[in-house]
Please model this.
Amino acid sequence: MNYDAIELRSVSRSHGSGDSAVTALDQVSLSFPRATFTAVMGPSGSGKSTLLQCAAGLDRPTSGSVSVGGTELTRLSETRLTLLRRERIGFVFQAFNLLPALTAEQNVALPLRLAGKRVAKSRVREVLEQVGLGERARHRPTEMSGGQQQRVALARALITRPEVLFADEPTGALDSQTSREVLALLRSMVDREGQTIVMVTHDPVAASYADRVIFLVDGRVNGELIGPSADDIAARMTKLEAVPC
Ligand SMILES: Nc1ncnc2c1ncn2[C@@H]1O[C@H](COP(=O)(O)OP(=O)(O)OP(=O)(O)O)[C@@H](O)[C@H]1O
Model:
């Protein structure tokens, strides 16, 4: 069967209990087809991070189910879930989280080393070249710009050829020119390599690089835009943020 990269079925996630319970996600059903780039947007507290965490197997839904490439996460033990995350899911965050004592190539090789796998130098070079850093393999993070560091983080996320790359505000710490370069790189990973990407962002320009933008409000899907411009996205966000709580 040809499964979507990620599928969420009626996913709910609550925190706490009784009167103080908070519903961070409320019956969310979404599919993320392979080789597509999806942005997730919504007002602060609308459930974006919770959605990403549940979809990536970092958090468990209170009810509903999540599948990665047809594998149902909700049925896996913690050990199997950790293995699946390590082998089939990639992450990049606003903070680059590189190890300062290691060179770019050592940082990129780290996920394979941690998994006890053989590290082929040629594969490390290949991903560094994909992100345009073939010449910087021996540099340490302090010798690189913010954009270059985020590209190393991207190469590190891609070394295992993950089925899905989750990006949480990946350009939040970058200036607008550097952000555009990183976003163009994400776009080309989808178009050239068939990578599936799900990205949470507050930035309409960043979201406009995606094929589809999903809007969350109060833990529910409030609609989507397909191939929108940054202006369309900004207008929709302004409307959503104007809704009284
Ligand atoms: N561990 C937790 N305990 C209690 N409530 C939580 C917890 N994590 C999230 N929440 C609540 O769940 C809701 C959704 O939070 P979430 O962080 O997913 O929103 P978000 O859209 O990512 O917000 P932001 O854009 O501000 O980062 C919020 O009301 C938040 O306060």
